[in-house]
Amino acid sequence: MKMTLTKMLVTGLTTFTLLIATPLTAGNLLTNGGFETGDFTDWIVGQPTNVVATPGVGANQGSFAAELKGTDEAQVGVYTIRQSFLANPGDEFSFSGFMLSENGIPGDGFGILKIIFRDAQGVDLEPESASVGFLNDTGFPGIEGMPSLNLNSDANSWIYTESQGIAPAGTTEVQFIALNVDVNNGVTGTTPIWFDDIEVAIFPSDYTELQIVKAEALVEALNLSQVTTEGNQNAFGNFLAKAIRELKKGHPDKALKKIEQAIGKTDGCFNNGSPDGKGKSHDWITDCYVQAELYQRLTVARDHLQE
């Protein structure tokens, strides 16, 4: 997942950047997702006709993109590249990227990004759920990104696509696959589809709790110059400890309330460039650098609970 929001915080003569909604555990799990090596380094290539090159309109970013295609004689074919990783039940993944067709997609062909979960025996599993994209229930389990590249897509225009969902019980592996399903409906020839800037974000099954635990440890380690009072420091830590307990009890709504209470005591630097002063909304954390990390961790935990 690409970073979606940055906000500059300016405090006195000090300027720093706060990054919001960026997964803190893995960044982009894929390597060479932009194909800037000029080849398929780190990818498993399904067919030798697939190449790394540059479309006429240029790559989405950088110099290169992946072209998935068959031979000129082919009428029907499925052309793929993929990367695979170990995974656990409950892990959540977001798979995104850009697709392009230079001449449009004829007939019933399409291009997609797809997440497939597998068990220890290599059997494809039905995903636990999909929050972005749709579940394939036609005998090929997985989460297929939306939108697909198809007959209705504009030619020579990079189109963003994304899928996101949760691994089911029994998962030991996850595959991230780019597919060109080339169906020319009797017309001889191949229809190449280009892919570029492919990314994967992982949200482990304990992802929300992990962010709260790290925030709690940070608050506990603060000195008195970084908080309003020792009592408020302890109270902030109690918000987080209670959120963790509620998560363990299976009460995400109650955990969410505690997280939101904590955010309200460390959001002044993000909202206003300096800690909130006296009043009901005053901040208990007075160091903007500390606020930046706490605000990031807690808002990511909050947003993940709300999904």
Tell me what the structure shows:
The protein is α+β, with helices and mostly antiparallel strands. It has 2 domains: about 10-25 and about 205-305, no CATH class; about 45-205, Galactose-binding domain-like (Jelly Rolls), CATH 2.60.120.260. It is about 25% helix and about 30% strand. The protein is built from 5 helices and 15 strands. It has helices at about 205-220, 230-250, 250-265, 270, 290-305, and strands spanning about 5-10, 15-20, 45, 50-55, 65-70, 75-85, 90-100, 110-120, 125, 130, 135, 145, 160-165, 175-185, 195-205. Strands 3, 6, 8, 9, 11, 12 and 14 form a 7-stranded antiparallel β-sheet that branches. Strands 4-5-15-7-13-10 form a 6-stranded antiparallel β-sheet, with no helix packed on it. Helix 1 runs antiparallel to helix 2 (about 230-250) and helix 3 runs antiparallel to helix 5. It starts with a strand and ends with a helix.
